[in-house]
């Protein structure tokens, strides 16, 4: 039975449709795997056994009648950031203790409408703020990957660490995730999985706990490129409840897979060759270039001159928006309330107890940069930088580049409770150096596994596309996947 | 904003102090609740008087992950109001977040418009007066801007010994904040401004203007200076909720500031509250305690954009505004400025009048509406919306006078009957025998009798024709007021041989 959990979404889809397996069998296989291994990984913060079985039964009924949606009977894990009706939705924060919404986020509602089965809620950095999943109120998540010959526990990346770990350790067929500065792509790269952050506006943000509204975008983490295409198709939609969602038809992304890339222009941005980048990242990048060249793509050197300002600007814009978005967690209406002697004291006590260090740090930064007298120097300046970053990409795409290839992360997964990272938050922030620009420009970006480092840990490459051209990303990522092969951790648990 | 002084000091508006005259400078920020079925960014109802927390959506309660969606009707209402204020309509405007913590502000921020409001500069012409000569003076007051924003909920502190309750029914309701330029120079002008603004939004149907329900409230900025001097330091009196209180607050505040300045003190810029029970203003918070609202563009909302065609479409269906209506009543119905001003002062009165005047003599209709109807309403303490006499009924009364069926005097009686008992005036005239006697024979008989009974008076009248009036009175009395006075007059003069 445990073999069932190794099926990709597309494989499971075939077996379900041909009735080789039932959704209940598949779901039970996952629930069994979760029950056995979640203590090891801490990937799930809530497992919805009964709901999963009920949904699986309903799917089996539909499948038996030859009906069902694109994801009928496929068991998924849901990042704790998504509002799920009647189910644990806390953004892995203490401040949302006990919160179970009366509503379903548009993304998860879309998935359920297409027949997917919910296994539970996945661990994440608190309010999606972090790159290691260590800021979660529910504790760190363990990466199923380990360096060769070592028992040291590694982080799965963040903030969608639970999603990436669950997918790579076969605790779900695919997972929802969100990406504000790299929170889908970095964990995907750290766990040998595929993660796509779609164009801003492609996926509705309604019902997803907000971190930084102008940057947040949901996407899938899956075991291969095809699965990512299948999931994104179901997740994406225009939504009248999110006026920043865009009314464009959702293409059949899966159809893009296998299309030749001959003649495609692939841009290689020189600014992504950063100081102190390990040699093996450069080697990986060169491999990727070679694979695409072999497949007939034209490789062009490009320049994105404002790249170096992206990370500092991001750490102004994102905290600024977060400081305001998180103001609603005040102890008045839901979640944690720590009593105080008056209303201000209650706010202070509640927020002091409810938010973790990283969240507090970002609220402080955000509050500071929006303050009278600092707004122009920080927030306004960062918005100007953002416009320039956007223009960098527009110029390159206008010059005929179809897709941009970069490394996904500057390193492989690092250790849990890494002293370097813990002592210097900026070191942690540097994890997102290759990914934040994409959020700042609102573009789609995909991380695809491309190889292993010297210690046998997965490394990923990133492809960046034109707005709403996710198809080219799937098409190109699939070429890399074909050349590089798939990467799975050795099962030690 | 740059303060530009548009007025020259006017001695009749100055107030005397121990050190000479002072000039009051007033600017108003009026919050007007937009008339709309749903809130500014959610579908929850805006109905007044619902059970606490009955009109609250997930967005209004700021549940995690909820997003605002602009209610287009509120945008249209803001544009209509802007047009009514002859203001610049901005084709692109931006919603910002104004951040502060309060239990009745669930999001922790109010969505408002800070740097780029939907409506820019405009103007309102107010009428101050009448003075002792019965004259009105028109003054133009500049509008700085109008922007859309969310209202907050309500905190209730007196229902529980240690806890406060929060009612979110108002949370997220659309408000228009209409900011004037500091162009007003007296409490009367400020009152006239709020009155006129209320009239305009009521004409437009963009705000019901009910200040007692909180649909309109004003923040009043007051400073004083020596006439024509530099602007002084201002104090802002928050949330004044009646026109009378606006006047009282300004009077009090101006005198308070003058007293401080004349004592050699200086005014602290601060926010104050008006206490209607004591008739005074009290300090609420100083400039140092002012919030830093950390405004920034709301990333959940795209900039609000529309084209001129959209504005034109709304302009096309705009109702006639009070100033235009007044001009029309004067020019086409021949009403006096005074009468026209009264009739247009409230939309409900104007609507009533226009129904009465339709197809009838405008001046006669105006007299009846102003003198009789408004007089009676005033005496009874009733609104025109609840007038016991409908426009149709009053119109019938006017018709009966006009066609000579009843005299003006009888009409007053008839009006009173209709007011008290209701009914069709024409039928009442029939059933109660109030019809004017036009039968010359009957009148002649009465005239003859009166002359015969008063030979000495008849003699006097022949010598002194003005005495004829006495006979008219007697005949009218004898006929129970039903005789046509003109016919009586003519007959008496003929019988007595008075030639004019």
TrEMBL record, chain A:
One of its GO terms (biological process) is translation. It catalyses: L-glutamyl-tRNA(Gln) + L-glutamine + ATP + H2O = L-glutaminyl-tRNA(Gln) + L-glutamate + ADP + phosphate + H(+). Its EC number is 6.3.5.7. GO terms for cellular component: glutamyl-tRNA(Gln) amidotransferase complex. It is an enzyme of class 6 (ligase). Pfam families: Amidase. The active site is at residues 79, 159, 183. Keywords: ATP-binding, Ligase, Nucleotide-binding, Protein biosynthesis, Transferase. Residues 25-473 form the Amidase domain. One of its GO terms (molecular function) is glutaminyl-tRNA synthase (glutamine-hydrolyzing) activity. The keyword Transferase applies. Allows the formation of correctly charged Gln-tRNA(Gln) through the transamidation of misacylated Glu-tRNA(Gln) in organisms which lack glutaminyl-tRNA synthetase. The reaction takes place in the presence of glutamine and ATP through an activated gamma-phospho-Glu-tRNA(Gln). Hydrolyzes indole-3-acetamide (IAM) into indole-3-acetic acid (IAA). Belongs to the amidase family. GatA subfamily. HAMAP family: GatA (MF_00120). PANTHER family: GLUTAMYL-TRNA(GLN) AMIDOTRANSFERASE SUBUNIT A, TRANSAMIDASE. NCBIfam families: gatA. Heterotrimer of A, B and C subunits. This is Glutamyl-tRNA(Gln) amidotransferase subunit A. It comes from Mesorhizobium zhangyense.
UniProtKB/TrEMBL annotation, chain B:
It catalyses: L-aspartyl-tRNA(Asn) + L-glutamine + ATP + H2O = L-asparaginyl-tRNA(Asn) + L-glutamate + ADP + phosphate + 2 H(+); L-glutamyl-tRNA(Gln) + L-glutamine + ATP + H2O = L-glutaminyl-tRNA(Gln) + L-glutamate + ADP + phosphate + H(+). The keyword Membrane does not apply. One of its GO terms (biological process) is glutaminyl-tRNAGln biosynthesis via transamidation. Gene3D superfamilies: 1.10.10.410, GatB domain, N-terminal subdomain (1.10.150.380). It comes from the Bacteria. Heterotrimer of A, B and C subunits. This is Aspartyl/glutamyl-tRNA(Asn/Gln) amidotransferase subunit B. It comes from Mesorhizobium zhangyense.
